[in-house]
Amino acid sequence: MVRQFIEVRGARQNNLKNIDVDIPRDKLTVITGVSGSGKSSLAFDVIYGEGQRRFLESLSTFAKSRMNQLKKPDVDFVFGLSPVIAIEQKKGIVNPRSTVGTMTDIYDFMKLLFASVGEACCPFCKHPVPTRSASQMIDHIRQLPQGTVLEVLAPIYKIYGEHYDTTFDEIRSKGFRAVRIDGESRNLGDPIELDEEAEYKIEVVIDKVIVQADAFKALAKTIENSLKLVGEGFIRFEIDRVPEGEEVDFERFYHDFACPEHHLTKGEMNANYFSFNDPDSACRTCGGIGTFMRAEARFLIKNPDKSINKGAIDPKLLGLSGGTWIWALVRSMAAHYGFSLDTPYAELPDPAKQLLMYGSKGEKFPFLPGEDASKSQTRHAGKLMNFGGMVHIINWWYKLYLKRNARSTIDDEFYKRVMIEHTCPDCEGRKLRPQRFCVQVGGSDLHQLCHCSLYELDDYLNGLTFASERVVVGQQIAAEIQSRVNLLLDIGLDYLSLGRRSDTISGGEAQRIRLSTQISSGLMGMLYVLDEPSIGLHARDSVRIIDTLKKLRDIGNTIIVVEHDMDTISSADYIIEIGPEPGALGGRIIAQGTAEQLQSHPDSITGSYMSGTSRINIPAKRRLPAGPMLSLRGARANNLRNVDLDVPLGVLVCVTGVSGSGKSTLINEVISKQLYANFHDARIIPGEHDELAGYEYLTGIINIDQSPIGRSSRSNPATYVGFFDKIRDLYAAAAAAAGKTLTKNDFSFNQKNGGRCENCQGEGTVTTQLQFMPDVESVCPVCHGSRFNEEILDVRIKDKHIAQVLEMSIGEAVGYFDDQPYILHKLKVLDQLGLGYLRLGQSSTTLSGGEAQRIKLATELSKIKRGSHNLYILDEPTTGLHLSDIQKLIDCLQQLVDAGHSVVVIEHQLDLIKVADHVIDMGPEGGNKGGMVVAAGTPEEVALMDGSWTGKYLREVLEAVGG
């Protein structure tokens, strides 16, 4: 019998109330409900968790012992499960090497395309160079007359920021003994002195052979080895001498075999030749990351009012004594260029500051050792030397430090103090060694293709042609790339590029990327569980994700989506609503059926919003931007097109636009980082812009996101909002009144050797690790889950000990602490935000993103000071929130503005946008077609503006509520 439903019976996970539910198979089912009602518990903890656990149980004991085992969810049974895949919105990718291209495997196909059909050019003159295997090179050399003397050479490139000696040491370590420098032969066994500031043409001498029959086999092996060791895949054959009586047509020999001018030939390539994760291909300076720490001159100055001799410069650099080489060089340079080291640094002329920080640029001066000079310094008295500059010295030190196996906390702190992250100065952010970009396909190199938008890449692939001998291979690889690119285009990610770092994309974008890889697999009979796939999508693009989900369903898969987006809910085959309230008051099935059935269901909160019975109303009166402005000029970061913008302060501002239009770049990368640099940390580098004026009207900047309020299970609302210390003070006072010698610290479950239960170390549970079974977590048998020892639990206030207080809900605690104004104020703010159901001691790891964000907002609301004017920035705060929760969020944001603060929200949710005082719409499209302000004004004004996608959909929403 084929099962028609996934049958869940007796689900009690987290706050679920022993629910039974049937979810239709091969359908698109949406699970919705207010934030914290138990949606994710049902979809991920029960259905996905049980499906994944059963799969892992089918593995061998050996395999299970090497994998993290999933705990069995608290459910009686689940029937009708298929192989299950969860596609969550969590980013979870912090590796700077991960990109959109590597996440989707498209970059692997790009590497294969370039290795298979790439056309090389000379690294010096860009003339096309044919690609040859070692055997093909030998076949060509056979044409030379017997007895011809041939020299085999390979170009060598100086390592960025290193001395020439380092380059020569590396060549020696690979077994080579001679080089040519600007055509002159030099033995690597002899000392070679070169001007470090000058450029030289250096080639390593690989071999010198006489063309004869018995030499070719050994020469082929030499060529193969040398192509791997030196030359970055390029090699040169120079005819040194021709036998008497023989003639060689040099032009004919090099024609179609090498560069006519430099005689370079390109060796065969494999895919790793283009891999920034391969040490032999990655940029030598940044190791394939694209960024590198560089010293910043302003951070080297410890006190500009002091002189160099009195400690103006960080002592870690110059040394505590005056007898170091750097001190001697600085003194010699000051004497030569005529400035005093006793003058305060701030009063030194600019040329002197440039000399100190960036060196003499190759100009030499006589070395003058000091009175306390060492013998080695005295020996060099009068010798002409140059000074590299303190910035360059630290950069060099840092490179040496990275090569060391041992790391030092002191050194780490020093480098973090004086250095900041920049685009790599060697590869300029391209991650690979420069010679890799001498290979092109269709006139473009790999970096260009990986940093254009996906719709531009699609256009490029459509127009790509191949040489006749490479058509079969090239078309096959290009087709694989194009099919994957089209999937990303179909789900609204056309503005991304393959080179975009994974840690810079949103959770919604990461989820849609993973979704595209599942579609490309073409599997059927699967169960997919998704968490809000509409996140980060403009109303214009939400239809794309709905169509994608339907495609997955139509090929024979079951789709379960946790979602709040009304368009997605309305498009579902079946809807399950959990509620009616969050937390302990939720966890029940309050409605299920089709969209039409929910709209007529009397208990369905979602149905009431779908039918229009409930709605978020437009404010009776909007605040007019009559106060000061934040004035941004010339913003050019990422895709921003020299944006000039005035952001009104003292009002609620929404920044909108289609995905990839530049909203987050404008607010997070430019405005937020510049303000953070002004108020907190000058080491923060904002996105490129000319000026940001008006920040003097602000007291500070606060970014409120949906990240967890704590990574540890010990973190909870009481500790985060900051009133648990006051509660501990009350219990310490009660203990003293009872004659007990207990302190405030004894009432902390984090304090070792205090009042916590040492058997469970204040966790309340004990975890037993089993070898190939999931860890078993049980209530601590000593404290019975209270987390404290008996002495602490004997202390009571109003007949409750501290463990019972932590188990109280916020709503209950409002009445319990009605005589404690400080605690009561913070509890009331939490309760007003709809968080009254949370327990004071509820672990932060059990909170949803929306709950965590509202706790952060409550923290800010509870400590508002008169006269302060902060700027609060929120990026898509409606993520994970039901429409009823969005109303609470809006009330909270309005409170912040009413208290004299400014709020800027990056948002797609139209119900939040329509209540804003001022809207800034970016666009008109995403990626290279965006980056401009297309509309600004009240929601009503933006709704009337042509060319604004947000305006188009906002107009429909305003008309629906009579706006």
From TrEMBL:
<keyword id="KW-0267">Excision nuclease</keyword>
<dbReference type="InterPro" id="IPR003593">
    <property type="entry name" value="AAA+_ATPase"/>
</dbReference>
<keyword id="KW-0677">Repeat</keyword>
<dbReference type="InterPro" id="IPR017871">
    <property type="entry name" value="ABC_transporter-like_CS"/>
</dbReference>
<keyword id="KW-0234">DNA repair</keyword>
<dbReference type="InterPro" id="IPR003439">
    <property type="entry name" value="ABC_transporter-like_ATP-bd"/>
</dbReference>
<feature type="domain" description="ABC transporter">
    <location>
        <begin position="624"/>
        <end position="955"/>
    </location>
</feature>
<keyword id="KW-0963">Cytoplasm</keyword>
<dbReference type="GO" id="GO:0004518">
    <property type="term" value="F:nuclease activity"/>
</dbReference>
<dbReference type="GO" id="GO:0005737">
    <property type="term" value="C:cytoplasm"/>
</dbReference>
<dbReference type="InterPro" id="IPR027417">
    <property type="entry name" value="P-loop_NTPase"/>
</dbReference>
<keyword id="KW-0227">DNA damage</keyword>
<protein>
    <recommendedName>
        <fullName>UvrABC system protein A</fullName>
    </recommendedName>
</protein>
<keyword id="KW-0862">Zinc</keyword>
<dbReference type="InterPro" id="IPR004602">
    <property type="entry name" value="UvrA"/>
</dbReference>
<keyword id="KW-0067">ATP-binding</keyword>
<keyword id="KW-0238">DNA-binding</keyword>
<comment type="similarity">
    <text>Belongs to the ABC transporter superfamily. UvrA family.</text>
</comment>
<dbReference type="GO" id="GO:0003677">
    <property type="term" value="F:DNA binding"/>
</dbReference>
<dbReference type="GO" id="GO:0016887">
    <property type="term" value="F:ATP hydrolysis activity"/>
</dbReference>
<dbReference type="Pfam" id="PF17760">
    <property type="entry name" value="UvrA_inter"/>
</dbReference>
<keyword id="KW-0479">Metal-binding</keyword>
<dbReference type="GO" id="GO:0009380">
    <property type="term" value="C:excinuclease repair complex"/>
</dbReference>
<keyword id="KW-0547">Nucleotide-binding</keyword>
<dbReference type="GO" id="GO:0006289">
    <property type="term" value="P:nucleotide-excision repair"/>
</dbReference>
<dbReference type="GO" id="GO:0005524">
    <property type="term" value="F:ATP binding"/>
</dbReference>
<dbReference type="InterPro" id="IPR041102">
    <property type="entry name" value="UvrA_inter"/>
</dbReference>
<dbReference type="GO" id="GO:0008270">
    <property type="term" value="F:zinc ion binding"/>
</dbReference>
<keyword id="KW-0863">Zinc-finger</keyword>
<keyword id="KW-0228">DNA excision</keyword>
<dbReference type="Pfam" id="PF17755">
    <property type="entry name" value="UvrA_DNA-bind"/>
</dbReference>
<dbReference type="InterPro" id="IPR041552">
    <property type="entry name" value="UvrA_DNA-bd"/>
</dbReference>
